[in-house]
Write a structure and sequence with these properties.
Layout lengths: L2 H4 L16 H7 L3 E9 L3 E2 L2 E2 L6 E10 L2 E10 L13 E14 L2 E12 L5 E10 L6 E7 L6 E12 L5 E12 L5 E17 L2 E12 L2 H15 L6 E11 L1
Antiparallel strand pairs: 1-4, 1-14, 2-3, 4-5, 5-6, 6-7, 7-8, 8-9, 9-10, 10-11, 11-12, 12-13, 13-14
Length: 253
């Protein structure tokens, strides 16, 4: 398995909406804002690769933003980390920093950012990305990531999403994405698919609870073979598909 694929990374693309309407709305969005969240997940899955097994993972996050710029700090804690090498590793095994800018022009949204992945028991990694989205039904969005250290790979994610309003600010949020991976060596494939459903539950002013369920799967036979081999070397499970879920708590400021 190559070094790039072994890294326990997570996609940390930030969003900070920019109003295209009245001056008052623009002034409001220029004010700094912040939110903090913590997710309790049954497994850590990233781009089809598994980085935990049979344990709860806890993922805290903190974001500050103003005038379209955002800064996010994210971490991963594996409550019972599984390491095939037998090496001593910290249960808090990843800390990521993302710097981003997001804006819009009419119905077109755009963004760009830089991600630094601080990893335990692996080389740190860095990515840059650009994104574009459309404010139309299913909200299609394309994000392209480029690794700028280590293995010089590319990853592109094409996604759609839809929110169904229920009652009292409760919504059912559905999404699906397809990922294409090119490691600039011997692998360039439609790599992984992800379908997710979550329920947004406001419980107090600026406090939201979100249960979610996701299914990750390969998009081709070659991708399935790659994921099985890579996941076996990381968590000793020859799997290419995962059903996982959890609960997140978010507090806005």
């Amino acid at each position: 398995m190559n070094v790039r694929a072994r890294k326990a990374l997570s996609t940390m693309a930030l969003t900070a909406a920019i109003a295209a309407g009245a001056t008052g709305a623009l002034a409001e969005e220029s004010k700094p804002s912040a939110d903090a969240s913590v997710a309790f997940m049954s497994q850590y899955i990233w781009r089809g690769w598994a980085y935990s097994r049979d344990s709860l993972v806890i993922q805290p996050s903190m974001t500050v933003s103003a005038s379209g710029f955002g800064l996010n700090l994210w971490g991963n804690l594996d409550t019972e980390q599984y390491a095939t090498s037998g090496d001593e590793t910290s249960n808090f095994n990843e800390t990521d920093l993302t710097i981003s800018y997001d804006g819009s022009a009419g119905k077109i949204g755009y963004g760009a950012g830089y991600i630094y992945y601080g990893l335990d028991n692996a080389n740190d990694s860095q990515e840059v990305y650009v994104s574009v989205s459309l404010d139309v039904p299913l909200a299609p969005a394309l994000t392209v990531y480029k690794e700028i250290t280590g293995v010089q790979g590319w990853y592109a994610s094409l996604g759609v999403s839809h929110s169904v309003p229920l009652a009292r600010d409760i919504s059912l949020d559905l999404s699906a994405s397809a990922g294409y991976y090119d490691d600039e060596a011997d692998y360039n494939e439609w790599h992984d698919g992800l379908v997710s459903a979550s329920l947004t539950l406001p419980v107090a002013e600026n406090v939201t609870i979100t249960p979610s369920l996701s299914y990750s799967f390969p998009l081709s036979g070659k991708a399935g073979d790659r994921l099985e081999a890579d996941n076996e070397s990381v968590i000793n499970d020859r799997e290419d598909s995962f059903l996982f879920g959890g609960l997140s708590l978010e507090l806005g400021f």
